Amino acid sequence: xxxxxxxxxxxxEFAEDHxxxxxxxxxxxxxxxxxxxxxxxxxxxxxxxxxxxxxxxxNIARHIDERFADRxxxxxxxxxxxRGGQRSGAFTHILxxxxxxxxxLEGGHKSWRHHVVAELEALPGRFSFRILSGPTGxxxxxxxxxxxxxxxxxxxxxxxxxHRGSVLGPLPDRPQPxxxxxxxxxxxxxxxxxxxxxxxxxxxxxxxxxxxxxxAMIEALRAAPCLLIDAPAAARxxxxxxxxxxxxxxxxxxxxxxxxLKGLQSNETxxxxxxxxxxxxxxxxxxxxxxxxxxxxxxxxQAHNFRDYRQAPRYTSADLSPNGIEALAAAIRxxxxxxxxxx
Length: 343
Prior knowledge:
With 343 residues, the protein is of the alpha/beta class. Helix content is 54%, strand content 10%.
């Protein structure tokens, strides 16, 4: 319907959350917005408008010159700010005066945010989820990605949250999004799913790093049937050494992350693990982490939070290589689509 969605808010506001596909063309940057805001509160709204008007005019002129000057007469953008007020109003007015059919989002980002929150209370309950379960290192996230490659519907929450959901979960190449932006991305992902087909997701706790899953989302996951990936410890150790290879290249970072387990493990155990890091004995470290920390934690969590975890069908594999992961995904799809064929 619209050729472009223009977010006229400041860069900091845009970074916190924005409508999917929007481009940030701030009419006031962060410093300018703060300065005008101080005038509004401490002097008067009139003084703020006097100071802000030339800034807004110059910024809008620059955006038009640098980004939109080549747009055709038929170009139709949608413009929004926080509440659909003066910032988006000024931008829309100038675009319309030029001759473009610019529209302003009524209620601005605030109305969009209300829409997302309301939708996230209803959307998760519309889908038939299938929950990939299994102890740490059984390749659940990679199987989920393989399922997507094979044409299944997937909700990859850890990808949306940019975190693997454990003390070693931060990704090496990108930070986690703010909570509001995560929720917008979750809403977009759910909105693209077909309720008539099963949706595969991974067993998650309420928190993925710093991100909190909405209540309706966690309730839908915990009410869904589980599919248990069963892999021996040796295969899981080998898989984790590959999948978390970035920690092997930065042992100091690994040691720092392990220090976050203080209070959950004894000082003696943590000291031994730090010594294994220093010695570069990563296979022994991973094996101990699974045996003493992750496996007991996972068993307690799954049995408590997922109602049919103990009755879940098992998909057993000692091969968690890329080819083995693809085979696991194919077996899971066959088991869900044609249960009698499950192996």
